[in-house]
Write a structure and sequence with these properties.
The protein is α+β, with helices and mostly antiparallel strands. Helices cover 23% and strands 17% of the residues. The protein has 3 helices and 4 strands; from the N terminus they run βαβαββα. Strands 1-2 form a two-stranded parallel sheet. It starts with 9 loop residues before the first strand and ends in a 6-residue tail after the last helix.
Length: 103
């Protein structure tokens, strides 16, 4: 990725797409188009909501389930492991802190 250029728009992006090992399995999903091409035009603010709420790497998998308009964030193996409220609170706090993002 190129150096930070203050003239480029700042875009929030999933940290795993930039090659950060933050996924549930300890891996990443590095996207070479993003890393090699889009980084020429954008600055990235890497974010990982799961680690942001304190989940470990690696970690048990979680999924959104239920009503699409109000899904619950729960464990795949243990659906009683409900992280919905924790993630909603995190999202509210991040929204306040990331108002400088362009996208």
């Amino acid at each position: 990725m190129s150096q930070t250029d203050e003239t480029k728009p700042v875009v929030g992006i999933s940290a795993c797409l930039l090659g950060h090992n933050v996924r549930y399995d300890g891996g990443h999903k590095a996207d070479t188009f993003i890393i090699n091409s889009l980084s020429e035009h954008l600055n990235f603010k890497p974010l990982c909501p799961e680690t942001g709420i304190g989940l470990s790497v690696p970690r048990p998998t979680i999924r959104l389930l239920g009503d699409p308009s109000q899904p619950r964030l729960v464990g795949v193996v243990d659906r009683n492991w409900d992280l919905t409220e924790k993630m909603q609170n995190y999202a509210i706090e991040q929204t306040k802190q990331l108002n400088h993002l362009c996208g």
